[in-house]
Amino acid sequence: MQQVQDLVTIIPWNFVATICNLLIQMYLIKRFLFKPINEMLAKRKEAADAEIRDAEKAKTEAEAIKAEYEQNMLEAKERANEILSNAQKTAALQSEEVVREANRQAAAIKAKAESDIAQEKRKAVNEIKDEIGGMAVEIAGKVIEREISEADHAKLIDEFIANVGDAS
Questions:
Q1: pLDDT tens-digit profile of 40-75?
Q2: CA 62 to centroid of chain Cα atoms
Q3: For 71, which of 54, 61, 102, 104 is 20 to 30 Å away at the CA?
Q4: Rounded to 10 degrees, what is the CA torsion of 74, 77, 81, 84?
Q5: Spatial distance between the Cα atoms of 118 and 37, rounded to a whole number of angstroms
Q6: d(CA 113, CA 38)
Q7: Per residue in 146-163, pLDDT tens?
Q8: Closest alpha carbon to 156 in 131, 138, 133, 134
Q9: Full-model pTM
Q10: How far is residue 90's CA from residue 12's CA, in Å, rounded to a whole number?
Q11: Could you tell me if 143 and 156 are in contact, meaning their C-beta atoms sit under 8 angstroms apart?
């Protein structure tokens, strides 16, 4: 039993030396192990925080760029609609102008045709008058050459009508 008791007995100098040894080991571990590890962890945390700040900054910039892009797209759509509207208005005005010009030209052609018809009609009437005048002179010459009887007179009129019918 003595041996068991020696194992369980606490020797004060051993106990103090063990406690001092434990305190020295804790100090050394804290000084040379925990301090560098804590510094390294602090640097890592700072780097992670910097990356998070950079990511948030990039996200904010991306959202600003997205908002600007959407605004530009809206403006572009508005400009495209405005250009399309202007083009449609211009096309409508041009088509109206073309129709007016075509109507004006048609009216001018119609007026010229009517003028040409009237001129040809006058020309034809003048030609007929000349022919009738010539025939009248012929008839008058024949009447003067001879004295005509009632039967000759009817015969001359019939000849005149026949000649007029042949001339037209």
A1: 999 999 999 999 999 999 999 999 999 999 999 999
A2: 30
A3: 54
A4: 160
A5: 118
A6: 109
A7: 556 667 767 777 787 777
A8: 138
A9: 0.40
A10: 111
A11: yes
CA–CA dist 105, 97 (Å, integer)? 12
Can you read off the two tokens belonging to residue 168?
A: 């037209």
Q: Would you say 105 and 119 are in contact if contact means Cβ atoms under 8 Å apart?
A: no
Distance of CA 67 to the CA centre of its chain: 24
Token pair in block for residue 71: 């605004």
Amino acid in position 139 = I
Which position has the token pair 């990039």?
Answer: 58
Of residues 140, 128, 133, the one with CA closest to residue 166: 128
Amino acid, res. 94: Q
Computed on alpha carbons and rounded to an integer, the radius of gyration of the chain in Å comes to 65
Give burial (CB, 10 Å; 0-12/13-18/19+) of 138.
Answer: middle
Amino acid identity for residue 108 in this structure: A
Tell me the torsion sign for CA atoms 143, 146, 152, 158: negative
